[in-house]
Write a structure and sequence with these properties.
The complex is a heterodimer of chains A (about 120) and B (about 110). Helix content of chain A is about 0%, strand content about 50%. Chain A is an all-beta fold and about 120 residues long. Chain A starts with a strand and ends with a strand. With about 110 residues, chain B is mostly beta strands. Chain B is about 0% helix and about 55% strand. In chain B, the strands form two sheets. In chain B, strands 2, 4, 5, 9, 10 and 11 form a six-stranded mixed sheet that branches. In chain B, strand 9 and strand 10 form a beta hairpin. Chain B is globular, with a radius of gyration of 13 Å. The chains are: A mainly beta (about 120), B mainly beta (about 110). At the A-B interface, strand 4 and strand 5 of A face strand 5, strand 9 and strand 10 of B.
């Protein structure tokens, strides 16, 4: 079955630690995205990548880093510089990087809690 | 910066009623809009996409786009308890390379 796999589903982190969230897709999609969702908030764009070895900052990129070394993988690192990292993180992909008529397919999400 | 605004609700309707969800947007040049449904604790799933002015119908769902007034709405006819979820409105960013989401409206359908 084609889809997007995020891991881990739940993650606990101590303050000051970096943590990496995994996102893998087997849909052969060009573009991948990371969104953050807080209670009562919509989805806010962290980073996105339209092609391998290239990525762009979204609206809330500070304290996060990404890489896109392979088409199918787009890991997100939440660094200690992110002041309020507790949130629900969603990875998504789209067939192309053009969203005018494109659809986003989402993974099941990773819930990060900072203790 | 493009913005998409939604009333967070909750919107409560009885089973069988029509639920009307609204979204306004700031950029007059925005062309396309997406409605995603998100159940509690789950990821969003696309339910409707509308590009042109007017109405688009898909089963019990109708999306309406009014470019002159800069709003897009989602009507759910014959609402069911299974429709209880948060509905997110989204539109492409300035570059057309990512989606910008509203905060979502929570719908509760009571049986």
């Amino acid at each position: 079955d084609g889809g997007i796999t995020q891991s881990p589903k739940y993650l606990f982190r101590k303050e000051g630690q970096n943590v990496t969230l995994s996102c893998e897709q087997n849909l052969n999609h060009d573009a991948m995205y990371w969104y953050r969702q807080d209670p009562g908030q919509g989805l806010r764009l962290i980073y996105y990548s339209q092609i391998v070895n290239d990525f762009q900052k979204g609206d809330i990129a500070e304290g996060y880093s990404v890489s896109r070394e392979k088409k199918e993988s787009f890991p997100l690192t939440v660094t200690s510089a992110q002041k309020n990292p507790t949130a629900f993180y969603l990875c998504a992909s789209s067939e192309t990087g053009t969203m005018t008529t494109g659809e986003l397919f989402f993974g099941e999400g990773s819930r990060l809690t900072v203790l | 910066q493009k913005e998409v605004e939604q009333n967070s609700g909750p919107l409560s309707v009885p089973e069988g009623a029509i639920a009307s969800l609204n979204c306004t947007y700031s950029d007059r040049g925005s062309q396309s809009f997406f409605w995603y449904r998100q159940y509690s604790g789950k990821s969003p799933e696309l339910i409707m996409f509308i590009y042109s002015n007017g109405d688009k119908e898909d089963g019990r769902f109708t999306a309406q786009l009014n470019k002159a007034s800069q709003y897009v709405s989602l009507l759910i006819r014959d609402s069911q308890p299974s429709d209880s979820a948060t509905y997110l409105c989204a539109s492409p960013n300035q570059a057309g390379t990512a989606l910008i989401f509203g905060k979502g409206t929570t719908l509760s359908v009571s049986s």
